[in-house]
Please model this.
Amino acid sequence: MKTNVTSHQDDAARVVAREIAGLIRAHDAAGRGTVLGLATGQTPIGVYAELVRMHRAEGLDFANVVTFNLDEYVGLGAGHPASFRRFMDERFFEHVNVPSGSIHVLDGDLAAVDVPASCADYEAAIAAAGGIDLQLLGIGRNGHVAFNEPGTGRDSRTRLVELAPGTRADAARFFEGQGATPHHAITMGIATVLAARRLRVLAFGAHKSSIVRRALVDPVGPDVPATFLREHRDVTFCLDEAAAGELPQETH
Ligand code: PGA
Model:
């Protein structure tokens, strides 16, 4: 496990974007594609901005990139302003050349009866693509990873979940109040995430410092699902100084 603390979140975003670009270019040179696991939320916005910049300014080519997003709200429809599909389109997909057939997002608009098969298909599509080369991740203030809320086990896979009250409260600003915030989501599981070959976990700001400390210091287990990430053989926690502010000195 590595921690990389930068003075500003833009620096962390650039480092991660450059790593992704390096991976894409190395794979292209070797004649193979690159499979990226993507995250939504405020945290990865700078990474997408930098990747878009590199596409425009440096010709970074996404033609051989396949993407899988971590999660989606249930019941919104892809066009809803707060849907993660819409977020991804606006922040990233509309500005780069990932082929539309290579973009995978979970469908939050299915009849309940169709959800398990759709989740199984998603897992199968990840496997068929050769597994995820690099997974971007944020951490929720309650320690969730994707929408794997506290209490989630390490063996969890892609499935329907109920959102924790704190998660809904944090999301309420993107809806017309907490009453309009979805109660459910579909999310990759912890085991799905841990199967990626590299994990790059981003957390920025003082409001994340307490959960970052718990993620890196608390015993590994379902109380703080982000603790499971520490057991991955190639994980880097990319933090700004504010998010790292409560870490014991030796973890810096
Ligand atoms: P944020 O969300 O990037 O908007 O802080 C992170 C998360 O809940 O995983």
